[in-house]
Each structure stands twice: as structure tokens, then as C-alpha cells.
Design a protein that fits this description.
The complex is a heterodimer of chains A (647) and B (99). With 647 residues, chain A is mainly alpha-helical. Chain A has helices at residues 4-10, 29-45, 53-76, 108-131, 138-157, 161-179, 186-217, 222-228, 234-251, 260-263, 269-278, 283-290, 292-296, 299-322, 326-346, 352-379, 397-411, 417-431, 434-463, 480-501, 505-514, 526-547, 560-566, 571-617, 624-646, and strands at 19-20, 85-95, 98-106. A 3-stranded mixed beta sheet of chain A has the order 1-2-3. The radius of gyration of chain A is 31 Å and the shape is globular. Classes of the chains: A mainly alpha (647), B mainly alpha (99).
Chain lengths: 647, 99
């Protein structure tokens, strides 16, 4: 590219300008330092730190949260145009024109994530003290959690794509370690590997995108890339956009790389809540929204993002309808909700802030749902089959109420969160216009109905009806160290959506970064009433199937859709038949070729030489006189030959 | 006598020596046959030196004598030590150095 200059002349609009960070924000490096310190001490300290390790882990997460809040408060004091602050830490790769520095970018978008990660992260740290209290490896668990917080904060705070990539890999590592935390269970070990490999596929997309950026723009920093992107050709921006989308699908469990998330539920429940619901899996959405200046110039890539989101939101919701394992049902729901966010992000400027709003609200209610599921599991001898639950509302009152709040939030009953954040996405999808807009909007609308169905199903099967417990199960309410985070998250489920969306608070806050136009009309539009009607229909259907009738302890055979959904809609079967088996065949073919072709050639040559030598060796008889005879014959032949030539 | 007769004698001596090396088993006799072959060669050298009136052949004959003496010293030493250990001077018995 000859020109960042030409680029700025063509399209200067979305270029990112930053100011140096001062004051409390100057200490933003502590955001990374606190949890990193915790992780190092807990993982290197070994058994000596067992006694107080969990407390250190919680303290480090809370410390990061306090730093985040201070930085946020300071940011609010700046005028909107000066809220992007850059904190240079040190030059990482200074090579001639290729400059990569470790720097932190504090802007309205990253601070939202910082508060979500450290806030919800701290709550889940506290919850895990209780949840993991019987586990002899609790200290190691907190070490990994702190490692995750560090990597996730690096991901959202980095001011360039290489730093983002480092965090991206870090959260993948932490996710792997935590899914496989109980590595002696083969299912957990396999799930961890599956998650890691599926993520790697996406990571390849992200790394290729970063390489393409460097090749095209000569820079990998946000300011450099977004400043030059206006001068790039349509094909380049589309290619980079699609590669970024591939990265996002891996990390956010979107089609076609969705299959790992359901298995990831093998990890401890706090991990499912923090990493596989509230924060890490939303990194893909962050990536898309952060790369808004690229996607703004690549409408085709944006459409691909929206389609991936719309398909995944239905896909995950249908899986959620059929799963009897409460955590897997919630995992399907997570895929579905992230589908909403991807759909919103794919709608372009109209949807970026809506995606983030739904992401933040989802962080509260989905973490709440998972913590509720975790406390049920904790008190029911690790039972996760909802057909073995039932009637828990009376014995676990706090869990029931907090889970209920999150339930109302996710299905979008006003005034709970989901209503304020999900319906604008449906509205925005329809407002895209054309056939694609109608299809995307209808998918989102249908998704709302299915969400209501599966969430009502979970509620009814878990908390109402006859008690179908195992004989050994004695469910009881969990202790305050676990209930208090659930209560706080329930309050968040109630208030977060309205707080963020009423009077366009979040949209205006994010406007300097992503430029989403404020919602012009209120929340009670005809569309939202239609959506509410579908929610009621879905809920009523679930009640008719699981509330009115008795839930059988063993799952009935079910209709073909149920059977398919139980098998993750054949996601694994697809991967196995399309990717795994051809790969195995290729490997077998290569082995065959290697054994027979390459090795065969070399071995034949060696065998020929060896065999010939073996036979020739017999000539060495050890009889001196026969040697003398051969010398004589040789000499005669030599002389004869010489004479022949001479003549 | 013309030098041709000396050459003929040298050939005859060489053939006798060569046949002796090939057919005799006693190492001492083989050595003597080798000496015979060397001396046949010496004779040929000297005959040619006379034919051509040059001294080169005679000089080389001295070299051959020196080499032959050295060879006999080493060879007889080996032979003695083999005889001590194996109680045999037959070259066919000393056939361990083989495949």
C-alpha cells in the first residue's frame, strides 16, 4: 500500500484517535498485573499456598475490578470525544517499519468489557470458594481463573491486533485448562482437547487476518489499521472481514465451529458461567465490534456475520430444547444468545452497540443461570439430569428466585434485561430491509419464541412438579458465599438491560467508538408486542408439555427433531464425516505411501546392497594361495589388456 | 650369450617361483618361491640394463634386494609366531581372516 495518506483522504470518518492516559488510568496496567500476580503465585507456589490461595485469587480479581471502576469513573469525567486513552507499556517488536508495542487502549468499548470481566469475574471467584470447597485442587483452580482474567483483560485492552491475539490465545489456554480441570475424567480431557482444537481452527482465521492487515496496511495497531482501511480495495476488506469472522466463530462457538461448547460443560460450573457464558465466548463479538471500521467497508462480510449469527441463534435454541442435562441446555442457550449478538454486530453501525448491550446483559443473566445450575448440582450430588430434578422451588428458595430472575431476563419479559436488549436487535434486523432483513428478523423473532420454550422447560423440569430425585440426594440451599453472588447477578438481570438501554445510555456512551445511531422510538413497539406474544406462546407450549403433564424419568423417544437436537443437530457427526474421516483417510494414505513408496525405495536399495555384499563376502575365504592366484590372474589380465591397447 | 637368454631364464625362474607360491602349502617354501620370483625380476632388470646400457635397472635391483631382505625378516617373524601357537607352518591352516 502506498498510502495511509491516500486512505485518510478517502475516508477519514472512523479513524481512531487517542490521547495518552493520565491519572488513575495511568495505573491501568494494574488491571493485568493483579490477576497475573495471582496466577503466578498460585501456580508456582504449589501446595504451600493451598490454605489461602482462594482468598488471594478473589483479592486479585477484586483488585482488578477496583482499578477498572476507577478508570471508568475517570473516563466519565472526560468529554465524549476524548475518552479514548492510550497507555504505552513497552515496545514489544520494534523492527524498522514493523512496530508492535504492548499498549492498553482505554475507551468506552474496552471499559465495558473490563467492568464485565472483572465484575462478573469477581462474583464468580467468590462463588467458586464455596463451589470448589471440597476439591483438593481448589488453589490450582483459582490460579487458572486468575490466568483467564489476565488473558481476557489483555484481549480487550490491547491497542493492537497482535496483543489482542496474545490474549485470545491466553483465554483459549485457560479455557482448555479449566474444561479439563478434572482431567482424570476421560470425558473432561476429551472435551478440553476438542475445545482447544476447534478454537485453533478459528485462531488460524484470526492470525491470517492479522497477517493480511500487516501486508496491506503495514501496521497491526488499531489506529494504524483503521486509519488506512479506507484506502483498501473492497476485496481486501471483505477477505479480512471473513477471516475475522472465522476467528470469531471459533471463540464464540458459532456455526460452523460450534461443536465444542456443549462438551465444554464438562468443566466445573463456575468455569461454565465465567468463561463459557459470560466472557470468553463473547470475545468473538468484541472482535467484530472492535473491527467495526473494517466491517463498515465490507458489507458482504457483514452479511456473512449476520447470517452466521441468525443460523446459530436458531441452531443453539433448538439444541437447548432437547437437552436433559441442565448445563448443556444452558450451553445451547449461550450459543443462541451469542448468535443474537453476532446478528446485531453483522447489521453494521445500527447494531454494534446493541450487540454490546445484549452482551453485557447476557453476562449477568447467563452467569446467574449457570451459578444457579451449579448450586443445584452442588447440592444434588453432581446430578445434572433435569429428569432427576423437580420440586426444587421449595427446598432451594434463593436459588429458585435468582434463577427465576435470570429466566425472566433471558426470555425478555419487561422490565427484565432481555426485553430491553433483545427486542431492539430484532427491530434492527427488520429495519435492514429487503429479503435478507426479513429473513434475519424472522429468525431472531422465532428465536425469541424458542428461547421462551426451552427456558420455561428448564424452569418447570427443575423447580416444579413431582420430586424425581435419586434416593441419595438431599438437596438443600447452599451457603451465603454462593448465594450472594447469585443475588447480585439476579439484581443485574433485573436492572442491567433497562439501565443500559433507557435513554440510549450505552448507545451514546459507545458512540465515539462504534457510532450506532440512538433508538428513535420507545421500547413498546408493535414488534415488541409480537415478540412478547411469541414468548408467551413458547412458554405456554412448554407448560403444556412439561408443567401440566408428569415428566418421565427416562427420556421418551421423541420426534425426529428432538432426536436430532439431542445429538447436537448432528454437529459432531458432520465434523466426523466431513473433516475427521477424510483427514484419517489422508493420514492413512500418507502412511501407506510413506511405508510402501518412500521407505520401500530406500529399503529396497539397502536390501540390494546388503544382499550383494553378503554374497560377495564369500569370496574372502582366508586361503592365502587363492588370493595369490587371483592376484596372478589379475596381473595377467592387466598386462594382457595393456599389451592389447599398445598393439 | 645375448641378453635375450637372460630374459628367457628370468621368465623360467619367475614361472617356477609363481607356481611354487600357488601350489606349495609350507610357508617356508612359499617364501623361498617368492624370493625366487624377486630374483627373477632382478635378473630381468640387470639384463635390460645391459641391453640399454643404462644403470637404472641395476639401481632398482639393489632396491629390490633391500626390500626382499626386509620382507623376509618380517615374514619369518610372523611365521615363527604362527608356528609357536598353531604347531603348523601350512598356509592353509592360517585361514582365520575371512568372512
Amino acid at each position: 500500500m502506498t498510502g495511509s495518506l491516500a486512505a485518510t483522504l478517502v475516508r477519514p470518518a472512523m479513524a481512531l484517535t487517542t490521547l495518552p492516559a493520565v491519572g488513575a488510568q495511568h495505573a491501568a496496567w494494574l488491571l493485568l498485573a493483579f490477576p497475573a500476580f495471582g496466577a503466578i503465585v498460585l501456580l508456582l507456589g504449589g501446595k504451600r499456598t493451598n490454605a489461602w490461595g482462594h482468598l488471594l485469587g478473589v483479592a486479585m480479581a477484586l483488585g482488578a475490578f477496583v482499578v477498572g471502576v476507577l478508570a471508568f469513573v475517570q473516563m466519565l469525567g472526560y468529554p465524549a470525544s476524548q475518552r479514548s486513552r492510550d497507555l504505552h507499556l513497552y515496545s514489544w517488536i520494534p523492527v524498522a517499519h514493523f512496530q508492535v508495542s504492548i499498549g492498553l487502549l482505554l475507551d468506552p468499548l474496552s471499559i465495558c468489557f473490563v467492568l464485565l470481566i472483572t465484575g462478573v469475574g469477581s462474583l464468580i471467584h467468590i462463588y467458586a470458594i464455596g463451589y470448589m470447597s471440597h476439591d483438593p485442587e481448589r488453589r490450582r483452580f483459582f490460579g487458572y481463573l486468575n490466568l483467564f482474567i489476565t488473558a481476557m483483560l489483555l484481549l480487550v485492552l490491547s491497542d493492537n491486533y497482535v496483543g489482542l491475539y496474545a490474549g485470545w490465545e491466553g483465554v483459549g489456554l485457560a479455557s482448555y485448562l479449566l474444561i479439563g480441570f478434572w482431567q482424570y475424567k476421560p470425558s473432561a480431557a476429551v472435551a478440553a482437547k476438542k475445545a482447544f482444537i476447534a478454537n485453533r481452527v478459528g485462531d488460524v482465521g484470526l492470525s491470517l487476518a492479522i497477517m493480511a492487515m500487516f501486508a496491506t496496511f503495514g501496521s497491526v495497531s488499531f489506529t494504524g489499521v483503521f486509519g488506512a482501511v479506507g484506502g483498501a480495495s473492497h476485496g481486501v476488506t471483505t477477505a479480512i472481514g471473513l477471516l475475522l469472522l472465522l476467528g470469531a466463530t471459533g471463540k464464540s462457538a458459532q456455526l460452523p465451529l460450534q461443536s465444542w461448547l456443549l462438551d465444554a460443560m464438562e468443566g466445573p460450573t463456575p468455569v461454565s458461567a465465567l468463561i463459557h457464558a459470560a466472557t470468553m465466548v463473547t470475545a468473538g463479538v468484541y472482535l467484530i465490534v472492535r473491527s467495526a471500521p473494517i466491517f463498515n467497508l465490507a458489507p458482504d462480510a457483514r452479511l456473512a456475520v449476520a447470517i452466521v449469527g441468525a443460523v446459530t441463534l436458531l441452531f443453539g435454541a433448538i439444541i437447548g430444547c432437547a437437552k436433559d442435562d441442565i448445563k448443556k441446555a444452558l450451553a445451547g442457550s449461550t450459543m443462541s444468545q451469542i448468535g443474537y449478538m453476532m446478528l446485531a454486530a453483522g447489521l453494521g453501525p445500527i447494531g454494534y452497540a446493541l450487540a454490546i448491550a445484549h452482551l453485557l446483559a447476557h453476562g449477568f443473566f447467563k452467569a446467574g443461570l449457570f451459578l444457579g445450575a451449579g448450586s443445584i448440582k452442588h447440592s444434588m450430588n453432581d446430578e445434572v439430569d433435569m429428569r432427576r430434578f423437580g420440586g426444587l422451588a421449595t427446598v432451594m428458595k434463593i436459588t429458585f428466585v435468582t434463577f427465576g430472575f435470570a429466566y425472566l431476563a433471558i426470555i425478555g419479559i419487561p422490565p427484565f434485561s432481555g426485553f430491553f436488549t433483545k427486542d431492539p436487535i430484532i427491530d434492527a434486523a427488520y429495519s435492514r430491509g429487503g429479503v435478507s432483513g426479513a429473513l434475519l428478523g424472522t429468525a431472531a423473532l422465532l428465536g425469541a419464541g424458542i428461547t421462551a420454550f426451552y427456558m420455561t422447560r428448564i424452569m418447570l423440569m427443575t423447580f416444579t412438579g413431582k420430586r424425581r430425585w435419586e434416593d441419595a440426594a438431599h438437596p438443600h440451599e447452599v451457603g451465603p458465599v454462593m448465594t450472594s453472588p447469585m443475588i447480585i447477578l439476579a439484581i443485574g438481570s433485573l436492572g442491567a438491560g433497562g439501565f443500559l438501554m433507557i435513554s440510549n445510555r450505552l448507545i451514546n456512551f459507545l458512540a465515539p467508538v462504534v457510532g450506532t445511531p440512538p433508538l428513535s422510538h420507545g421500547f413498546f413497539t408493535p414488534l415488541s408486542f409480537l415478540s412478547l406474544a411469541l414468548v408467551v406462546v413458547g412458554g405456554a407450549l412448554a407448560w403444556a408439555m412439561y408443567g401440566r403433564r408428569e415428566v418421565p424419568v427416562t427420556a421418551p423417544h421423541g420426534n425426529p427433531i428432538t432426536v436430532a437436537a439431542r445429538k447436537d443437530l448432528y454437529g459432531d457427526a458432520f465434523n466426523e464425516s466431513v473433516l475427521m474421516r477424510p483427514g484419517q483417510w489422508l493420514a492413512r494414505l500418507s502412511v501407506f505411501f510413506d511405508n510402501r513408496g518412500v521407505d520401500g525405495l530406500v529399503n529396497t536399495l539397502a536390501a540390494t546392497l546388503g544382499g550383494t555384499s553378503g554374497r560377495m563376502r564369500k569370496v574372502q575365504t582366508g586361503f592365502v594361495r587363492s588370493y595369490a592366484l587371483s592376484m596372478l590372474v589379475g596381473a595377467v589380465l592387466l598386462i594382457g589388456a595393456l599389451l592389447l591397447v599398445r598393439l | 650369450m645375448s641378453p635375450a637368454h637372460y630374459i628367457a631364464l628370468a621368465v623360467i625362474l619367475f614361472v617356477i617361483g609363481g607356481v611354487g607360491v600357488l601350489v606349495r602349502r609350507n610357508a617356508l617354501v612359499v617364501f623361498m618361491c617368492v624370493e625366487l620370483m624377486l630374483n627373477a625380476v632382478n635378473l630381468a632388470f640387470i639384463a635390460f640394463a645391459r641391453m640399454h646400457g643404462a644403470l637404472d635397472g641395476q639401481v632398482i635391483a639393489f632396491f629390490v634386494m633391500v626390500v626382499a631382505a626386509a620382507e623376509v625378516v618380517v615374514g619369518l617373524a610372523i611365521l615363527t609366531s604362527i608356528f609357536r601357537t598353531r604347531r603348523s607352518a601350512s598356509v592353509d591352516d592360517a585361514n582365520l581372516l575371512k568372512y
